[in-house]
## 1
Amino acid sequence: MSAREAVVSTAVCCTVDNLDGMPGVTVAQHEVAAAAADDDVTLIWQNLTITPIRSKPGAGEQHPVLNDISGTLQPGTLVALMGPSGAGKTTLMSALAYRMSDKMTIAGDIRVNGCPIGPYMYNISGYIYQDELLPDSITVQEHLQLMANLKLGKSVTAERKRAMIAHILSRTGLERCANTKIADATGIGKTLSGGEKKRLAFAVELLSKPKFLFCDEPTTGLDSYSARQLVEMMKSLTRTGTTVLCSIHQPAEKLLYEFDSLILLTGGRTGFIGAPSEAVQFLRLQGLECEAGYNTADFLLKVLSSTTTTTRKGNQFTTGAIGPKTICNNYSASEAARRQEALISVELYRTTVDSGGDEAFRRRLTESRDRCWFYTLYWLMYRHVLQSHRNPNLQYFKIVQRIAIAVLVGLCFSDAIELSQRGVQAMQGVIFLIVSENTFLPMYAALSLFPERFPLFQREKKANLYSTAQFYISTIMSMTPFVLLETCAFILIVYFLANLRPTLLGLLVTVVVSVLVMNVSIACGCFFSVLFPTVASAMSYLVPFDYILMITSGIFIKIWSMPTYLQWMPFISWMMFASEAISIAQWDGVKSIECSNIIPSVCLHNGEQVLDQYSFSRQHLRTDLVVLVGQYFIYHLMAMLCLARRVSRN
Ligand SMILES: Nc1ncnc2c1ncn2[C@@H]1O[C@H](COP(=O)(O)OP(=O)(O)OP(=O)(O)O)[C@@H](O)[C@H]1O
């Protein structure tokens, strides 16, 4: 007998002996043995009360969603969580999995092998949500590869990961669809069925060999055959030591008996915890009999849901005697409840007598996986790039659109750019178009970037797969090559068609500034998209902001002529700095501009006078570039902080 087993058996004896007023409480030998095995983990919850936080300070009193409930999950068991809609199943499951919403307050104790639960639950548990979110446009095999890399990090070799994936694919029956796309944004081509998606979600959780797997209604929407397959997969998982807690609504009769244990919830209280046959027996003792031919699961749900119930005493039927409240009260006084209390006492006792072992266990649980920051970043970028590559239509459309605009602008200005007074106006016009084309389109396009990806990000962040910074930076970096290509194509076409200044420096500065403008605009669009809850609200605030950008572009008004209290505006805008930099590139060093037919006093004779006319100065070029780079980082930083705040509040 190992030291730990000894502690547990002593604890059981002591606990059972000391349970005053609980005669006859017996803890099954297999439960003791299971609790004692070294790698096994037992989860307990005691006097757990979960209450929603008031939405507004003046709002009325909030009723608890879960009210003073206790129970245990024994290692390697398949447990069904059942109860009517709104009973608190999801709430209990997310609390036990340490994935509770911040909008709830939690009182009571939840422990794994005596340790209060904490972020280590992400390392030892998996969670399958009711509404599974999976990335589109990538195949099953690619998704599993990506999740293996995110979950297991570099500590497991690529070869080992491949072998694991092959094994999991065959175990979950997904081999046939390994190369099928999960979903397709274009709606064309073969994608996974609902059942296959649920199996994929299950397969992903198998990668990290969790000690606990929490499945929120995984069989909902599946036909009885697929539901059975899924439950059988869960059952086989328990044989490897994983404890599976699965909320389920209406399992078929046979399927119900596949579960080792049932947790019945109603109105936030426990209706019963024990084997399915014990649950039926418990209700029978209260005169609640499942009619012949009636599905037991339906019967259980019916008695837990109804306010009045028909009970049977011999051949006599009476209505209204037993309701869910009475069932919960009877359960509290039952032997089944005492057995749970005894198992909880065992766990708590173990913590007090085996604090050294507990400490070692705690250390083992909290050990973080060997995940390199850049390795995670790389795989996230890989997924973004893969998704964009698989959705080329939108990208091609954007490129074609940009080229069309570039050709139009270039051709319109092709004869107008010259060293004359007419040319000055045309040049400043084309500069304004270059800057605004690289500002407004990308800024508005970026508005949908994060809202589209937010739900999946939130899930994966909650599962501790990566950080907000990794998600944000990978999203931006995966777009960067495409953004560079698009901007360079645009600017080169305009530059040569419109015959802008034929010097290498002029071209270089114009290209660099355009790329910076495009990136700052995207950064600003990202900031607005994460600052406001919806794309529509972000857009409504962005429109007035556009006016700040245009007014401060330096073309329409001299900044110094604006009221002093508005002279901060150019610093949140980038159009003036960009226009000034490109104007310097085009006009600096131009010695002579033709003045025919113009009154000499209003004629601009050289490049310096043109720059003066717009209050630009050749000395500002470096400052302009630095400000643009600064704005790029500031907008991205603010967007990242807003995103982190938003994800922590959800
Ligand atoms: N954030 C919240 N704020 C307030 N009430 C909440 C919140 N989340 C859940 N609830 C309430 O708690 C109760 C239990 O919700 P929960 O989702 O746990 O039920 P459930 O048993 O899983 O239901 P279903 O079977 O329909 O999924 C419901 O009445 C729900 O409205």
## 2
Amino acid sequence: MEIYHLNEKTMNLHNVTSCVLALGFFDGVHKGHRRLLETAKRMATEKNLTFSVMTFFPHPSQCIPHAQTIDKYITPLPMKIEIFKRLGVEKLYIVQFNLQFSRITHTQFVERYIVGLACAHVVAGFDFTYGFKGKGNMKQLEQDSDGRFSVTTVEKYEHHHHKISSTAIRHLLQSGDVQTIPNYLAAYYSVRGKLCYHYRPDASEFVLCIQIDPTYFLPKTGLYHAALVMDSDELSGLLEVSNPSTSTLKFFVKKPQLALTYEEVTIHFLSYADDIAFEQAAT
Ligand SMILES: Cc1cc2nc3c(=O)[nH]c(=O)nc-3n(C[C@H](O)[C@H](O)[C@H](O)COP(=O)(O)O)c2cc1C
Ligand SMILES: Nc1ncnc2c1ncn2[C@@H]1O[C@H](COP(=O)(O)OP(=O)(O)OP(=O)(O)O)[C@@H](O)[C@H]1O
């Protein structure tokens, strides 16, 4: 996968190839996002065009006043890049979202970032917005295209009559309801980290400490039933989130049957244990 970090200065510095472009922020790359990305991939294959994705970084709420500033992510950028790679994206455009970019009008965005990147077809969801004050929508996009590219609008994908969204997943994390998240993500909520040290409080128990990207959106404080995956080995245990802004997690496990190496690990949040267990572990 080719990755291009775009801003006003770097816009015209690379070769473009005719593409199908999927558009959006895509935090979590949840089931709704995946449906959209599969549509774009299928169209790229049918039309023999490059499968491209455009996303933005950081989240627009960090430079425009919003009800809530989003500075923690379900998938921090390196994770999102990895998922796009796995989904077969051929070109990834990461547009720097700053105040200057936010003031680009919907027509300017189409001229510079869609027509300018040789997009023959654009795929986005029913509620995608773009341009200054988010004035552009999917109807506007068809008008702005002026016949130069075609547009597919992906319908709302729901779970129990609710839109599957990054916002809904953040709410589930905030309430500790991690067991419901696979309905939205198609997988357990997971974080990637590095085993930084371990200690042994008694003969039967090990505590592993894992350093994670500080921009992960963590579930609420407490203890979680979790699985820790390292290479092909998997350990079951309890994971402590001491507070949602921590970047060190503690994983409690009974006598691990494998040699612990200080490498990359992935932690899957399976379900919430309870506050009582958390208080007991803390003492
Ligand atoms: C060129 C451009 C300008 C934007 N300007 C604003 C803005 O002024 N205010 C705003 O709230 N969002 C703005 N946005 C953010 C969009 O409304 C939207 O959040 C973003 O395109 C990601 O779409 P998604 O949330 O549907 O994935 C802008 C987006 C683009 C592409
Ligand atoms: N459930 C869904 N069904 C269809 N399209 C979706 C769905 N969720 C998001 N999309 C589309 O995916 C792209 C990325 O959307 P975005 O990153 O805003 O996701 P979101 O889940 O709506 O996020 P948020 O909850 O923060 O608004 C957009 O084109 C959007 O319209």
## 3
Amino acid sequence: MAFFSKLKEKLFKSSSKIEEGLDAIVEDGGEPDRPSEQPEPRPEVPQPPAPEPPASPPELPEPEPETQPQPVELPEPETVPVPEHVPSPDPAPRPEPMPVPAPGPEPRPEPEPLPDPMPADPTPGIPPAEIPPQGGGLLNRLFKRGAAAPVMRRTLDDDMLEQLEELLISADMGVDTALRVTANMAEGRFGKKLSTDEIKSLLAQEVTRIMEPVAKPMPIYPKRPQVVLVVGVNGSGKTTTIGKLASQFKAAGKKVVIAAGDTFRAAAVEQLQVWGDRAGVPVLTAPEGSDPASLAFDAMARAQEEGADLLMIDTAGRLQNRADLMEELAKIVRVIRKKDETAPHNTLLVLDATTGQNALSQVEIFRKISDVSGLVMTKLDGTAKGGVLVALADRFGLPIHAIGVGEQIDDLAPFDPEDFAAALTGLDA
Ligand SMILES: Nc1nc2c(ncn2[C@@H]2O[C@H](COP(=O)(O)OP(=O)(O)OP(=O)(O)O)[C@@H](O)[C@H]2O)c(=O)[nH]1
């Protein structure tokens, strides 16, 4: 419970861009749900000489609370699943890209046609009801959020769709995915008036639908040691993720060994040792500049001797010379296969969510130079645009095993599509 509220709080930053954008889009060109209850003063109607105001202002019915069902049902928060919860070996084929258009959510009932916003014959002398100014900036919206703000609705038309597309693209969802998502949202709803919450719900449903097939924990194989090769560009969070994963596996009763395969940077080795100490897991190192493949071979031998369940191999992330890196990774794979020809059993690509669309080209590159089997997306706590995960899922369909939401050892969470979609869109859980 506590963990998930922490996760939501941390993911808030990534929700803010889309959430604020959706609020603004509906307000831009939208109108309050029940404008007949909030008559504007009609300037051309002559006002009689100021009579005494009535003892009490006319009672306006409360704006009707929104009764739209929330289609996204968030599961009960749970604690961090430990690797034991991981399903048994499941080298399942990668999910097919999502078909378009997919069956969208149930069409919502069309809202009642709005009555004429001007009463035909307003009673003279009664002061107009005070209504908060519509539209305006963020502060305005924030204030209205706290009070019983009228529900805004906007007709889903071409203009609105274009604005939605732009918003999703600006949140790093990528052009193709943004177009597909908005097309699915509009299907069967074009010309209908939708509230902000309805739009958020629709978007959350679309995001969940794309993300569900890729939300898979790292598969565990009945192999000892199971070899996990960790790849990714420098600074993406490989070391931190290895430390967090090692800690979770250890807590689940697994015997873990780490190999510091980035032998080119002494600082990288030291950092991994720090994480190994934190997780209580041995870290095998080699002198700076030595052959990473030879270290991987020694680590494999030691992990086998010690009966380790898991060997996690860190690697260098220098993309400046792609050919060298490719050769280095290929050599690591060659030598560990001398000990176990089925290794490595997982090749995790660690991506930094704050790099936005760049993450897409990193996947393309690493898929060419290694056999990427799954993704870990780090630093989701540090971006206002988590949409890149949706683009990744939509384009590549690679499993997303976990997300990093901070720098502490327990800041690695399994990827939950519904929670993610709710956080991304600002939908209340
Ligand atoms: N906020 C946040 N910071 C993270 C997360 N994961 C990693 N970091 C930080 O990102 C920085 C780089 O992380 P590393 O684990 O060193 O990345 P690396 O890929 O091993 O980098 P090299 O050692 O240079 O190859 C560190 O300052 C980490 O604390 C995360 O999920 N959230």
